[in-house]
Amino acid sequence: MFPLFAHTTFTLPIEDPILKFLLIMAIVLGTPLLLNRLKIPYLLGLIIAGAVIGPHGLNLVLRDSSIILSGTAGMLYILFTAGLEMDMADFKRNGMRSLLFGLLTFIFPMLFGVVAGRYVLGYEWTSSTLLAALFASQTLIAYPIVSKLGITRDKAVTLAVGGTIIVDILALVTLTIVVGLATGDAEPDFWWRLAASIFGCGIVILGLFPLVGHWFFKQCSDNVSQYVFVLVFLFLGAYLTQLAGLEPIIGAFLAGLAMNRLIPRTSPLMNRIEFVGNAIFIPFFLIGVGMLVDYHAIIGSWETVYVGGVMIVMVTASKYIAAVLTAKTFRLSRDQQTVLFGLSVAHVAGTLAVVMVGYNIIIGHTPEGVPIRLLGESVLNGTILMILATCTISTFAAQRGAHNIALKGSQASDETRTGEHVLFPVSHDEDITATVELGIAMTKQKYRNLYALNAIDNQSEDSGVKKHAQKLLDMAASASAAAGIHMHRMLRYDVNIANAIVSVVRERNISDLVLAMHRDEYSEEGVVSGLLGVGAFSPLGKTIPALLAQTNVTTFVYRPMQPLSTIKRHIVLVPRRAELEVGFQTWLLRIRHLAHDTGAKLIFHATEQTIEHLQRKRRRGSDIASYVSHAISESWNDLPTLLKQMQADDCVWVIMSRRDRISYQSAMSRVPTFLEESLPANSFVMVYPVQAGDTEKRYLS
């Protein structure tokens, strides 16, 4: 102990909590910056850094309760995020495939483990079976890599995540059974208790959590409260499975599945969840794993090296065989096979649980009084060696395969997709956040360019008008930034709002216009001559009809009544001949992307002919919509009756048309009023697609 400053002392290991936290955060900051230059996965760097500063390295930081607490949270966080980001529609379609992969990646390690334990290492059958369960369990330690590269919804990732939960459940159930047999607790009622606890836990998490979450998100809009609520249910789910006799990682994953549909992929809440996890919880977990590595035990014992070597070879071979067979069966690409192997080969969470339980069970004593453990010290130290090796293999394999998949997907998209420039004219503060969330959810991040616009009358002399306009633009930018997306802010002076918006549409090559419908802007008859037959007191107000007359971009008029994440069904009403319009594909892509992002059901009401085109335009093997053959009458008189059938959490979309276009019907002028009167508590969107013809000349000549 020696003084550094007047009132500060320095000891090893570090005891000062401020200095300890500073050191760890410096590692979290510096490791990616250094290793990215060396083309080494940063996850591996954090594990190595933990080994260097840990009690078996430089002894700078002990693996004390604070590290264990943060690391446990990080381990659960990884599984929770995996459940949260899983493509549920794809998981339902590929459920049997995930089950098959889970069985393969369980059976082969079990076979290899029993053979290695019984015939290579000479263990008893119970110890060999427990060693095999240790081989079978796996941890998605490389999941942050695929998440960062944006391929979490790739088929290989879905198979890996689903298979991981299946194999971990089977491995931990095997652990429970072996321990029961070894300790003599496997009485007849043991099996009933185990089955009942597992079933009850699953019902509570998957059945009750979504209901409570839906109610909470509908009632509470505070960002901090929403995030804390998610954390509470994450750890509650983990604790419930622990009470049921399973590992908490299972509960964390199930909690993520339960919250999956309530937290859209592009929502601000999801951005906060990923940010905190990647910055705090997950790095602490990886550093804590590295602290387990004991160089002295590994180097000083040939038995440990031998056992560890056998474990590494057997685990890697068995997981690789399972990945190859799965890839061949389902015709996955070589890169997808690499990702599947990379995600399934790492052993941390479940492995540590199995080895620690086996190490702590004493089944006898030697004549000298030394305890005989179900899994000996050589297996314990060999497991640490295996964890380090499999994590290294996992991160390299996952990064290589994921990078190639992301690169190919990027090249394919670049050839077929143009940029999306979305404009949000803002004039009222109550609907800004909801409107921005809708626009973000409808568009893909890579091609997304967002603009917020407020227009001021150039004859206005009120000094407070500019301050209010800037406040509205800041609110829009803040709503976008909460989802991790930059928004351009623009303030324009013009003779009227519509002229300012039209100018920006042309200057910025705007592709989509997203506006909120405000009921305090009712227009009087004749504001825009001949447009949609707008009569007195139209809910569209004055600005929207003028924009529709002077622009020809996809326009969404939104009346939000509840958070987008709490909507369960999107009901889309499509008029006759809508498939013949130029913008048919564009609005369809937007709505499908929204439903895919939020996990809500998508139901189209259209004619048989239109339904054929809707189904033809779906992505191969990924149609999440259902179709109702319903020919909306030319008079639209049946619309109020149809709207009254809507449920509490439905959002209604009506595909509209500008006047004299292919799908235009004169009765569409009454649709805004029908929606206002029939849906007082439901959200709705009116969509005006891009249509052939010169809009400006048609209406302004």
Structure at a glance:
The chain is an alpha/beta fold. It has 26 helices and 14 strands.
Strands, helices and their partners?
Elements: E1 2-5, E2 8-10, H1 17-37, H2 42-53, H3 65-85, H4 88-93, H5 95-120, H6 125-136, H7 143-148, H8 155-183, H9 188-219, H10 223-243, H11 248-259, H12 268-290, H13 295-300, H14 302-329, H15 334-345, H16 349-360, E3 362-365, E4 371-373, H17 377-416, E5 420-425, H18 432-442, E6 448-457, H19 463-481, E7 487-494, H20 497-507, E8 512-516, H21 543-550, E9 554-559, E10 569-573, H22 584-598, E11 601-606, H23 608-616, E12 625-629, H24 639-643, E13 650-655, H25 671-678, E14 683-688, H26 695-700
Parallel strand pairs: 5-6, 5-8, 6-7, 8-9, 10-11, 10-13, 11-12, 13-14
Antiparallel strand pairs: 1-2, 3-4, 9-14
Overview of the molecule:
This protein has 701 residues and is of the alpha/beta class. The protein is built from 26 helices and 14 strands. The chain has helices spanning 17-37, 42-53, 65-85, 88-93, 95-120, 125-136, 143-148, 155-183, 188-219, 223-243, 248-259, 268-290, 295-300, 302-329, 334-345, 349-360, 377-416, 432-442, 463-481, 497-507, 543-550, 584-598, 608-616, 639-643, 671-678, 695-700, and strands at residues 2-5, 8-10, 362-365, 371-373, 420-425, 448-457, 487-494, 512-516, 554-559, 569-573, 601-606, 625-629, 650-655, 683-688. Helix 3 crosses helix 11 (248-259), helix 14 (302-329) runs antiparallel to helix 15 and helix 15 (334-345) runs antiparallel to helix 17 (377-416). The protein starts with a strand and ends with a helix.
